[in-house]
Amino acid sequence: MALYEHVFLARQDVSSQQVEALVEQYKGVIEANGGKVGRIEHWGLKSLTYRINKNRKAHYSLMDIDAPSEAVKEMERQMRFNEDILRFMTVSVKAHEEGPSAMLQKRDRDDRPRGGDRDRGDRDRGDRGDRGPRRPREDRE
Asked: Going by C-beta distance under 8 Å and a sequence separation of 6 or more, which residues neighbour residue 101?
C-alpha cells in the first residue's frame, strides 16, 4: 500500500465537532476500502490567503494515510460532493513524519534575535561604515 498525506479545508461556519465528524467519516471510507489512517491533526481555524466560495477562514485538518490508491480516490470523490469541504490535497510520500507536523511545532522565540541583541555593525554608531564620509550635495552627480 502507498503512503499519503491528505489535507482538507472545511468551511469556517462549521463547528470543530463537525470537522472531527468529517475526519471520522473519511477515515471510515479509507478503512472500508482496505487502508489505515495514522496521525490526524486539527490545525484549527486559520485565515485563507484569498477568499474561497465567500469564506475568509477555514478549518485545516491533516491525515496520514496508508491505503491503496482506490481508497484515496473514493475518499476524494466523496469530498467533491460535500459542501462543507472547500479544498483538499493528497500527496504521496515515501515515509510519514514522526512527531507533530510543521504547522503544530512551536517556534522557539528565544532563537530569534531581538531589537537590542542584534549586531547592527556601524549603523548603531551613526557613521557610514566602509563607504567613507558623505560628500556635500553639490559634489554628487
From this structure: 41, 62
β-partners of residue 58 are 11, 46
Q: Which residues contact 48 (CB under 8 A, 6 or more apart)?
A: 9, 55, 56, 57, 58
- Beta-bridge partner residues of 112: none
pTM of the model: 0.70
Sign of CA dihedral 81, 26, 9, 16: positive
CA torsion angle 93 103 30 2 (round to 10): 10
Class of domain 2-93: alpha beta
Which residues have a Cβ under 8 Å from the Cβ of 128 and sit 6 or more positions away? 122, 134
Q: What residues does each domain of the chain span?
A: 2-93
Render pLDDT for 100-139 as a digit per residue (tens, 0 to 9). 777 777 644 445 555 555 555 555 555 556 677 777 777 6
